[in-house]
Amino acid sequence: MPATSTQLSTFIPGQRWISDAEIELGLGTILQCDRRSVTLLFNHNGETRTYSTSTAPLTRVVFSEGDQVTHQDGWTMRVTATEAIDGLLIYLGSSNEGEPLELMETQLAHQVQFQGPRERLLTGQIDRNNEFMLRALSRQAQTRLAKDPLRGLRGPRVGLIPHQLYIAHEVGRRLAPRVLLADEVGLGKTIEAGLILHQQLVTGRARRALILVPGSLCHQWLVELLRRFGLPVTLVDADRAQATGAPFADATIALASINWLTQDEAAMQQALAEDWDLLIVDEAHHLRWSPHSASPEYERVRQLAEPTPGLLLLTATPEQSGEAGFFAQLQLLDPARYPSLEGFLAEEEGYRSCATAIARLEAQEPLKAEDLTALQERLSGDSLALLDLLDNPHTSDEQRDSARQQLTEQLLDRYGTGRVLFRNRRASVPGFPERKVFPVALDCPAVYKEVLNEYDEPHKQMMASALTGQDWPYAGLYPERLYAIQKREEGDWWNFDPRVDWLLEKLSELNNEKILLICAHADTALDLVDALRRRAGILAAVFHEDMPLIERDRAAAWFADDEDGAPLLICSEIGSEGRNFQFAHHLILFDLPAHPDLLEQRIGRLDRIGQTETVKIHLPYLTDTPQEPWLAWCGEEGLDQFSHPRPVGATLWQQYQEELHNLLEGILDADDFLPEVKATRQAAEIELEAGRHRLLELASHRPEVSAELVEQLADDEMDKELRNYLEVALDVYRIQNEDLDANTWYLKPGQESDTAIFSDVHFDMEEGSSGTFLRDKALARDDLHFLTWEHPLTRNCLEAATSTVQGNVTVALLKNPALPAGTLLIEVFFCLETAQQAGLDINRYLPPQSLRLLLDGQGNNLSNKVKFKGLSRQLVRMKKGLAREVVKLRKEQLRELLDKAENLAEEELPSMLEIAQQDMRDLLDPEIARLTALQKNNPAVRNAEVEQLVEERKQLDLALNAASLRLDALRVIVAGGQE
Ligand SMILES: Nc1ncnc2c1ncn2[C@@H]1O[C@H](COP(=O)(O)OP(=O)(O)OP(=O)(O)O)[C@@H](O)[C@H]1O
After folding, report:
1. Helix and strand tally (H, E) in the chain?
2. Which UniProt keywords apply (predicted)?
3. Which pTM was predicted?
4. Among the atoms of ligand 1, which is closest to the Cα of residue 183?
């Protein structure tokens, strides 16, 4: 609201003034005054203030012709003239309908607030120069960051690993990404998901996310999200649900156990009642599905995934439950693209020919006749046109290159699983250490032989499966469980099982090295802990599914502790999922799991990113028991799983069910069977290489793209700007800052500090905390914050500096002898804004943009000649009293200059709008084109879906067209004179 002020030397009851020190009080009315003091009532909140007349920080409010004023009853009028009676003003004007009106200043609405820089300047509200600096730097940074193509990738405390960055960059920029992250075990799916989530949040594409993980991984996820990504995560569990009626309601990022949501209907309903932008589900192979039935977990995720725009499913073993399970995961992600299992299976058949053609396109080789036929059969519309272009001899090299690239991308997206599935394999990620297996054959005790024979009886096999959780003959892999319920004179199984004697020897041989032991059953794990304690006084940490979460985390932490930690952690199968134990180099497999993917999960605990040594796998087994042929099937003669992950393992396991049964029963001899397994595995691997895997590999990582990402992220140019920025911010918010070394700062809030900027920052408010600008140092030192433009502290400063009026007006002195004293300049910042519309997420398409203008006293535009930084260096502060005096004296000139600046800004507006519209189209148009193309292949893509996007684009076009520039901050600069 435009208003001006005059400093009158006398106060008269009824006059309207504002408090310079407490602008938020609004318009005050003078109640009484005498020679010494003046008292005002601020009707806005009913408070009164009494000041000394000589030092009262008050400014008289006087409206001028053209200003709009509001009566306390709510009506408004535009001022055409002003009269004064006994020192009180009467505003004359007219209503919108032209009816003449009068308004006494005593009747002015008290809510009037002076927020805009123009009004604040003209009413003498002047901020400190460094507050203005912070605001201006923040606006500039916001504009720059909004355009940064690597936004959201800079802040996380992660090593720059190319395949992860590729996926994160590819997926994180999408609107509502729906993908399956299926890198092989330990390649960093959690990190990829974190990077995608971080990008989505930082860019405003997502505001809230729900993360569902197996209960045993809740803590690990919580720690990773906090430590690496600094994200505001809330662990939502039964305790929280009990304490609050709506446990998910305030959570920006809610982390919950999928087991809990599956068992607790009320919790599920509470999760469903919230609006999530992104759903992340870890270990998605647990979502079992078959054409006839779906597991409760699958159903839960389906219900949550349907209304949620984004979905990330994480699994290292997407095919653990066969083709149908794999298809079910894809269908959760993109029901339109994957409407039926039959269609999907038929499509799989075509991968091979398609993959060969794509490989040729990638290698820039000419397509062969059979490639053309294969592609022509599948392609339509724009893809076919691209193919024709390639085939046309008149096409230029440049056109050919671009057509080749587009065609590859479209093929991967529309005709393969490329757009929804990312799967990197160890084979293509350098730096993994070797694995070495050390099988140790041990004689089977007679008592075990008796037990195994006993349970081989058909009527006892049900019992065997109840004891081991495995059907016969797989149950025979775990004789200690079959024995354990029997009361025999030999006593506890661990008294005579030779694996335990071997274990005791091994422990003493490895003397304090960290060792992870995995066995199939919780009871075996517990018995082993007992055995080691009783037989040798060894204390081991234990980890199994029946322990409360907190105890599991404690056990894992005790094992991880370098100094006083346990050298041995004994885990049941559950311990082999998702956990990070790569600091250990020895893995003891006390038994073998029945499924190849579980074996890979076990080895993957140590064989993951960060493992620095060869992984040693120790494997004691009992001869003449089912363990012997099972080891042979897993080992070199069969699947050869110990040396490398084997993606075809699950398929072969399915295919050879009958033979495996006979092998374990001793009906089939390993030597007769395993050569065939080996040959089939090798053939299947070649097939996969050429078919889906080839396609996947192409779509999951493009090294030339990731190399560039790594290079850009390692560039420290942005850091320098950041240091300058943070110095100003810490000064404004009164945070102490000490250099510990060239790249490490120690920050400590003081009594006067604005602590709001520490919200969501894990900061020691008492002792202070330190941070570094170096990624490597931050990776090595968990105690240091990683200071980046995306650190929550920086983000809070950016937000705080631009969301209040603080710093939107200042007056500064220019120390430049070349300019005559009294020369006036005005520097203004405008922001591009448009009205919010229900249902349109306009902020997503109109990121912050600001316009800076610098005018001299005559209104000449110097913006391009004199830059913000150079000018700022020559400025010093001007005392407030003097600054007000300057404003008062030069008021008319300032008004004119501001009008002029607004006119200039108007001229710039069209080109700014054009850029905003282009950015919006760049985001939406490919999405529309993709859906339209998919629709041609697949009638399940609904027309309404495409139409909705087209309509949204139209509405956004209109809304962006209506955007305008708002004056956000101004600095009056006066040359010469002394401070
Ligand atoms: N870019 C990175 N920087 C630092 N550490 C990383 C990075 N990527 C992965 N790691 C570490 O490597 C380990 C494996 O990563 P993560 O847990 O994300 O793998 P995963 O693929 O989810 O494993 P799993 O298949 O077992 O669930 C973790 O300890 C993780 O912290």
Report:
1. 35, 31
2. Activator, ATP-binding, DNA-binding, Helicase, Hydrolase, Nucleotide-binding, Transcription, Transcription regulation
3. 0.75
4. 21
